[in-house]
Write a structure and sequence with these properties.
Layout: H1 2-7, H2 13-16, E1 21-27, E2 38-42, H3 60-69, E3 76-81, E4 87-92, H4 104-113, E5 116-119, E6 126-131, E7 140-141, E8 147-150, E9 154-158, E10 170-171, H5 173-183, H6 188-194, H7 204-213, H8 217-224, H9 236-247, H10 254-262, H11 274-287, E11 297-298, E12 301-302, E13 326-328, E14 338-340, H12 342-353, E15 355-358, E16 361-366, E17 369-372, H13 376-383, H14 391-402
Parallel strand pairs: 6-10
Antiparallel strand pairs: 1-2, 1-3, 3-9, 4-6, 4-8, 5-6, 7-8, 11-12, 13-14, 15-16, 16-17
Helix pairs in contact: 7-8, 9-11, 12-14, 13-14
Length: 417
């Protein structure tokens, strides 16, 4: 038992921190005595647990302690997969022979996924844990019955007996898709790949790079790399929220937000307080009015030219403000995409160009004088992201700007034509 407990220290911290642990033991199936014993999940209070009732799970530390004190009543602990976490378990069954040799197919799968891998409790299989989205139904088995994939409402027996030094959980969406298509004849994986932007399938590194290279990247870099809270009144909590606000624009995954924040210079012990961390992340999502849309890519080049809602774009001193008029069609369902808020667009145009109306003619201030705008529709269209440009948006915005009425200007304010 002592060796078994010591091996559990090898379990990755990122799943140790989740309250998704149970005890387990093998029990005979009373209804079918001739069948193999079944692994039954238990709570630490001795009552049976279910992989669908989170109130019956516990922390890693408590589960490990209960195992130690059980005096052999339980045979180990297990991690429960849920639809709310990003983890997927791949169970490879009967892949190691009596001489300790692993079959080539299983070895190829382990090499391809290259993520946390441990020897199963029986010693004849392997468990792999990755981060990603399951393109299949949880618990589905491969055609040859060797592979089973879990993503929710199931638990993995966890041993901590690492195989080939693979001790870190990695993001492996593409590799999982390939596995599904090859071994499960799964067409849904292909469909999901075409629709993947709806779930913002980006690695942590990709998100950090996008934030760093955005027009307001200086703000992100000051918080993320330098831990600089001077722009937030030296209020550390306000800075935490500001950084979280930026991150949630690029992911719908709360666990990914947590991971990225923990890799920042702002990370401190307070973030590990569940109440503080969860409240900060939830507030960021509830306040979110902008969400990154990869459909703005064209030929590998970024073509979107609007910023996070309410943020100023560009370097310090650049007066081009964030295009806050681009809003979600439905804040509770970001996958529906974006629309233009005409009132906000008109407000943006007035602020951006200092637009005035004089005797039915649009004028903008340039070189201290108000000059005629020859084509307001063109000016408006240039400010709208090209994938959202629609004649109705442009026409309605122009009419709304005209509704401001006449403005009395002094002759000396008008440019000599």
């Amino acid at each position: 038992m002592e060796d078994k407990l010591k091996l559990l220290d090898n379990v990755p911290d990122e799943i140790k921190l989740l309250p998704q642990w149970i005890m387990w033991r093998r029990e005979e199936n009373k209804k079918n005595p001739n069948s193999k014993p079944t692994k039954i999940p238990y709570q630490i209070n001795g009552k049976k647990a279910a992989s669908t009732r989170s109130g019956e799970w516990t922390s890693f530390i408590k589960a490990k302690r209960a195992l130690e004190q059980s005096e052999g009543v339980y045979q180990g602990i297990g991690f429960v997969f849920t639809k709310d976490d990003p983890y997927i378990g791949i169970d490879l069954d009967n892949i190691i022979d009596d001489y300790g040799n692993m079959n080539k197919q299983a070895k190829g799968i382990i090499d391809s996924l290259d993520s946390y891998t441990e020897l199963s409790q029986s010693g004849t299989g392997a468990h792999i844990i990755i981060r990603g989205r399951n393109p299949m139904k949880t618990g589905r088995k491969s055609k040859d019955k060797m592979i089973e994939v879990y993503s929710e409402a199931r638990f993995f027996v966890v041993t901590g007996e690492i195989i080939e030094g693979r001790d870190i959980i990695q993001e492996r969406q593409q590799q999982l898709k390939d596995l599904a298509e090859k071994h499960f004849n799964n067409q849904k994986a292909k469909k999901q790949e075409r629709q993947s932007y709806n779930s913002l399938n980006q690695t942590d590194e990709e998100i950090i790079n996008r934030l760093s290279n955005a027009k307001n990247g200086n703000k992100f870099k000051a918080l993320f790399y330098n831990g600089d809270i001077s722009g937030h009144g030296e209020d550390h909590s306000a800075a935490d929220l500001a950084l979280t606000n930026l991150i949630v624009g690029y992911t719908d995954d709360r666990f990914q937000v947590d991971r990225i924040f923990k890799s920042s210079a702002l990370y401190r012990d307070k973030w590990d307080r569940v109440d503080y961390r969860d409240l900060t992340i939830e507030k960021a999502f509830s306040d979110r009015t902008w969400r990154y849309d990869p459909s703005y890519y064209s030929g590998g080049q970024i073509t979107d030219d609007f910023e996070l809602a309410g943020e100023e774009g560009g370097q310090e001193g650049d007066n081009k403000k964030g295009k806050y008029f681009v809003v979600l069609k439905n804040a509770s369902n970001p996958a529906l995409g974006y629309k233009i808020n005409i009132s906000l667009l008109a407000m943006y145009m007035k602020e951006r160009f200092d637009i005035k109306v004089y005797k039915g003619q649009f004028k903008i201030k340039k070189d201290h004088y108000y000059r005629n705008v020859e084509n307001m529709k063109y000016l408006i269209s240039e400010e709208i992201p090209r994938t959202l440009r629609a004649p109705s948006y442009i026409k309605d915005c122009e009419e709304l700007l005209l509704m401001d009425g006449e403005l009395v200007l002094k002759e000396q304010d008008l440019a000599l034509l």
